[in-house]
From TrEMBL:
Pfam families listed in its UniProt record: Aminotran_3 (PF00202)
Source species taxonomy: Bacteria, Pseudomonadati, Pseudomonadota, Gammaproteobacteria, Oceanospirillales
Organism: Halomonas salipaludis
Gene Ontology terms, MF aspect: pyridoxal phosphate binding; transaminase activity
Protein name: Aspartate aminotransferase family protein
Annotated Gene Ontology cellular component terms: cytosol
Family, per entry: Belongs to the class-III pyridoxal-phosphate-dependent aminotransferase family.
PROSITE patterns: AA_TRANSFER_CLASS_3
Amino acid sequence: MKNDGVLHPYSNARALEKEKRLIITEGDGIYVIDSEGRRYIEGVSSLWYANLGFSEKRLADAATRQLNRLPCYHAFSNRITDVVLELTERLLGMAPVPMSSVFYASSGSEANDTALKIVEYYYNAIGKPDKKLIIGRKMGYHGVTHAAASMTGVPRNHMGFDLPSSRVLHVSQPDFYKFGKIGETEEEYSGRLAEELENAIIQAGPERIGAFIAEPLMGVGGVVPPPAGYFQKVQKILDEHEILFIVDEVICGFGRLGEMFGTTAYDLKPDMITIAKGFSCGYVPISALMMNSKVYEAVADGTDKNGVFGHGFTYSAHPVAAAVALEALNIYEELDITKRVQELGDYFQTKLEDLRKSPIVGDIRGRGLIAGIQVVKNSETKEFFEPSQGAGKIFEINTERHGLITRALGDVLALAPPLIINKDEIDDFICRLSLALVDTEKELC
């Protein structure tokens, strides 16, 4: 098949020219429908964001009402819309830790890019202009703008782009299954990673480290929950060296883990929080950066000194996006979404455990309605497939053949169904997944 005119994200453009496209034309609850009329369970909520599925009329109606009332406006200077003020009051009221101010953007990448700029602005404002380095984690994912991709620790996001920037350092990813030593407990492993972080800070100079950024549960890095004691040890080190803590809630936020935020799920104490995806369930692009009073007050003082906060996007605080996000929050509240995900999440995770019987399933991990299945060559010895074998991709292709869309992250199969899924649909999900696993075993064993 020739080039379709689109430079597809995360693709090999030459290889894609030879492949048939999966053209999605409709959505219905947890399902999407292709151009040939075939229905698929969307097992990753598109890109982790369709929490309320693909046909929530209330979100469409909220957008339509706002389009008919005030279809567009900005938040530059002293201008603001009523719907954005309402959304902001609601968002700050539900923040997992006290937050003082919100900056709006259109994607998680933009929110995280803004967080880095805020770090720089903050330290300039408080008279510490050398304290600008950012520490991220290998395989951590924070977006694809130049700054966000630098904070991201995924090699494929760096290749060919002269990234990461020298302003960003990366420490080890907290993946106990892959990197825990024989006989080592999770708590001991967390201690080892905390020691590595401390050493990295000392080596670079605490006076030069401005912030640490992390996802509560790593998404793109393989759906990896933090090992026991990890964040408690990390936060102690950050506090000791007066380093800002940025929590990337782009995937974890809005109920995915069975708590409204991953910050609550893992008892984090961030200075800044970035959100997107489930904020509007992907119906209209919107993201935000929340900051606490310490950060806001310093930034506000800086704007007074400089005369302006010289940052903002054309579509920051777009009223249609704000209206949709506000309605999504209303629906979450009415569904008691955290309780729902806790109950369904337990059922989902229990059903997934049956797949451990497979000789190529090394680990199944997750929380709530997100999970990752680690594919291995030998589950007893934890021997991994060679990357060139594409074991995870083979599994993904087989799930698609059985009407279930998943996403291979290396040799981890990511699962994150819409939060509106019910028990019968989970049973169907697991059935299709199991059939695909059997096919994958036949190909790989």
